[in-house]
Amino acid sequence: MSDPIPGIAAPAHLRQGSSIGQPLTRRDGPLKVTGQARYAADNHPPGMLFAVLATSGIARGRVLGLDVAAAKAHPGVVEVMTPANRPPLAGDPDAKDSPFMFRLDALQNDAVRYPQQPIAVVIAETLEAATEGAALLAPRYAAEPPRVGLDGAAAFVPAAVGVGSPASFAQGEVEAGLAAAPRRMEAVYETPAQYHNAMEPHAIVAAWDGERLTLDTPSQGMAMAQARFAALFGIRPEDIHIRSPFLGGGFGSKGLANGPQVLGILAARLVGRPVKLVLRREQMYGPVGHRAPTRQTIRMGADAAGGFTAIASHTLTATSSFDDFIEAAADVAHTLYATPALHTSHEAVRLDTGTPMFMRAPGEAPGSIALESAVDEMAFACGMDPLAFRLRNYAEVEPASGKPFSSKALRECYAEGAARFGWAGRPLQPRQMRDEAGLLVGWGMGTATFPAMMMAGHARATLRADGSGLVETGAHDMGQGAWTALAQVAADGMGLPLDRLEFRSGTSDLPDAGIAGGSAHMATVSSAIHGAGGAVIDRLAALATGDERSPLFGAGNAGVVAREGRLHRRDDEARSESYAAILSRAGLAGLEAMGQGAADPAAQKAFAMHAHGAVFVEVKVDPDFGQIRATRVVGAFAAGRVINPRMVRSQYYGGMTWGVSFALHEHAVTDRRSGRIMNADLAEYHLPVNADVPSLEAILVAEQDPHVNPLGIKGVGEIAITGTAGAVANAVWHATGVRVRRFPIGLEALIGA
Amino acid sequence: MTLSISLTVNGTVQAVALEDPRVTLLDLLRERLHLTGTKKGCDRGQCGACTVLLDGRRTNACLVLAAAQDGASVTTIEGLAEGGQLHPVQQAFIDHDALQCGFCTPGQIMSAIGLLAEGQAGDDPERVREGMSGNLCRCGAYAGITEAVLDAQARLAAREDAA
Q: Where would I find the Aldehyde oxidase/xanthine dehydrogenase a/b hammerhead domain in this sequence (chain A) (predicted)?
């Protein structure tokens, strides 16, 4: 049984339910374990053809020719789409009207601006014929030398980083603070290009019916995709129906409309039949985004007691030759540690790659592994335990803004995580511990942080004549558990048991739920759902309390509580009436209301809003061969109200696994001569396998936040990468005494050390 | 030339006409038989999303040519539940939250059933992790997967003891 929401101004009426906070299993679980959950590529409308992309084998230049005749001659091939016969678009795919709009490759010309760029589409009766047809195109190119690596082009200062943040920030006297500090460190950290690699390749099944369009395609932001496609094709957004009930992972790569989706729609238009286009795995290393590499130079100074005197962090990163997404890695220093002087700055180079994009904890993830490594180095320089050093520099207010935190249970995270891990007694010096097999053992830690953001989203609640509820919102479930947790919020919001509540989601004809990104989807959509349910109950209460035939007459809206499908008098719980009875007497077939979730500008002005955590890691390193294994990872996280602890724990496990991967496994390697990625597949681009993360533990630290949103929810999807990645790196140092600053840490950095 | 093969799919013998010798078992299942529970993540045997049981052995369906499987028996994720009753591995995946996005899940479950049948892992979590490491999960649901496999093994063993 949940209480009235703590710390929130009393609502006009109270709603109670037992769903929020329960560790329910996934409502979509039975569909997913039986193969019945329908992902985009599982659709097969009548008359459907298969489209396969031909993608560029060079990084930069022009396509001189394609053997279209050979492809078309192949049995089963229906059509080959090239810039020469591509149907016209009403909008320019190279237009950019906002930071959330990215330039797309949709066969608008013969230019090649990155490897794996689409250069043609082969459409055939079978997948085999389309695949063969694409191979037969044998493109001829005029290639230019590719610009590769952070030293491959001249650096420039971008106009903005992330989404509209300033490229630099300065406060206090950094140089003076560094000069006066008895303890100083300066180091350069490098993080690689990474690719989202959702297990589900990007896919689209497109079907035109006149000027109406039906799309099965995974989307983290259906309404934005609808708007983009509408502008590109010159049709009305409401004439585009997107179905995205399940995403096979997104991690940011399915956040915004992408070029291959547009090509699938164009192909369907060209042949006048439904078309399915699915990316091959290697084609996901180009047109659908990645995390850009960074080179971060961090300088720190501390006084004799281990207090920071200054922190300076400079990031050099990369974007594409034709668009801007600048990984805001340095900005993570804005929120973490107290310092009288802070300077962050960014530069970028333009390379012949696809445009980088949001990838799970954009900015924070690469920023955190560098900053947490630097903090560890500074702590050691000060002769302090890394946890004691972090507590010495604990930020009571947000360092960059000076604002108080809306809530911050980081001290509790440090304490609970350290206790659970057994941090006490860790030797300060590295290379002090071995296990029974002679492996080197090291312990490291890191602080986790991620902003608690709100996007804009809507929901509709309907109370039906039989007293059951319907809540509708075009939300997105890419594995975070939206189908389950949002339904829990919906049930409590309408004062109904979960089995009396129907929850509809995952299609674009439902109220716009905004974008599932920035770890803001639960907070945003829950607020909308809670508001919609509240508005319905308000009206219901007004009907009952204003009707002298009701046992609730005269109680006033504030005098009733909604629970289990009935309104009860607060001062006399025995006096109650069912929703159905109230509607029936009023002669109503139902009640309906909308709700909205959005940031509260006043609260945002007054408070810094972030989730926090502390991660403790043990690694074991083979002293002879340098093999590294993260044998134990314990994270303690505080992120406001937890709707479903089972789903939240899984989000933390996922983030921690990404953190281990960031530190030890994944990176894209580019061939300097060709500009092509040499490991564009799942064997050579290393993702952690089950045996790579043998022991994870996530502690859900209690935290109440009265300011972030009505339900006090902070996001949990991204935070656990931060903290974890640096903790692994620090543990490797502690095990070996070797400080590796180029990630991922491979055994080549440790052999013979 | 059309090739005709006989394939037992989830217990039902089917005559499959193949007009194209290039069709993989995975594409046959997904695009021709419309059994789309089996997923394609990489199409080259690197991710395990397409794992099925082929003559009882866990197999990456993307690496198998359908034409070479005349007379074979295939079990897919659609063929596990009996009379609406989930297979113990399926139920354990739900109970232990061994999935997030669900895309790798059919392959994980088929692989888990194959692993249990192989009898090599026992109740040793390290061996289960190793034995399940041919199936990638980008969401990072590995902890739950390991717990689910161990739990399912215990449930199956109890069922056998009772029988």
A: 34-145
A513 Cβ contact partners less than 8 Å away, ≥ 6 residues apart: A222, A223, A457, A458, A459, A473, A474, A475, A476, A505, A521, A524, A525, A528
In this prediction, residue B121 carries a pLDDT of 86
Domain definitions of chain A by residue range: 14-37+454-598, 363-453+604-749
Q: Which CATH superfamily is domain B3-79 in?
A: Beta-grasp domain (3.10.20.30)
3-state secondary structure A31-59: HHHCCCCCCHHHCCCCCCEEEEEEECCCC
Contact B120, B128 (CB under 8 A): no
Of A32, A129, A198, the CB nearest to B105: A32
pLDDT score of A98:
85
In chain B, residues with a C-beta closer than 8 Å to the C-beta of A41 are 36, 40
Task: For chain B, give percent helix, strand, coil, nearest 5.
Answer: 40, 20, 40
Q: How close is the nearest chain B Cα to the Cα of A689, in Å?
A: 5
CATH code for the domain defined by A363-453+604-749: 3.30.365.10
Structure tokens at B74: 């295939």
Provide, for chain A, the percentages of residues in helix, strand and coil under a 3-state DSSP scheme, each rounded to the nearest 5: 25, 25, 45
CA dist., res. A248 & res. A243, Å (int): 14
Specify the CATH class of A14-37+454-598 in words.
alpha beta
Q: How far apart are CA A166 and CA A312, in angstroms?
A: 16
Q: Start-end ranges of CATH 1.10.150.120 in chain B?
A: 88-162
pLDDT tier, A178 (very low <50, low <70, confident <90, very high otherwise)? very high
User: What's the Cα-to-Cα distance from A268 to each of A241, A677, A736, rounded to whole Å?
Assistant: 15, 30, 57
Q: What is the DSSP string of A435-473?
A: -TTS-EEEEEEEEEEEE-----EEEEEEEETTS-EEEE-
C-alpha–C-alpha distance, residues A272 and A210, integer Å: 10
Report yes or no: B23 at the A interface, CB cutoff 8 Å. yes
Q: Looking at domain B88-162, which of 2.60.40.3500, 1.10.150.120, 3.30.40.10, 3.90.170.10 is its CATH number?
A: 1.10.150.120
In A678-697, the residues whose Cβ lies within 8 Å of chain B are 681-683, 687-694, 696
Strands A183-191 vs A294-302: parallel, antiparallel or unpaired = antiparallel
C-alpha distance from B73 to closest chain A C-alpha (Å) = 19
Per-residue pLDDT of chain B (163 residues; tens, 9 = 90+): 789 999 999 999 999 999 999 999 999 999 999 999 999 999 999 999 999 999 999 999 999 999 999 999 999 999 999 888 999 999 999 999 999 999 999 999 999 999 999 998 889 999 999 999 999 999 999 999 999 999 999 999 988 888 7
Spatial neighbors of A298 by CB under 8 A, at least 6 apart, are A185, A186, A187, A188, A189, A311, A312, A313, A314, A370, A371, A374
Question: Within chain B, which residue ranges are assigned CATH 3.10.20.30?
Answer: 3-79
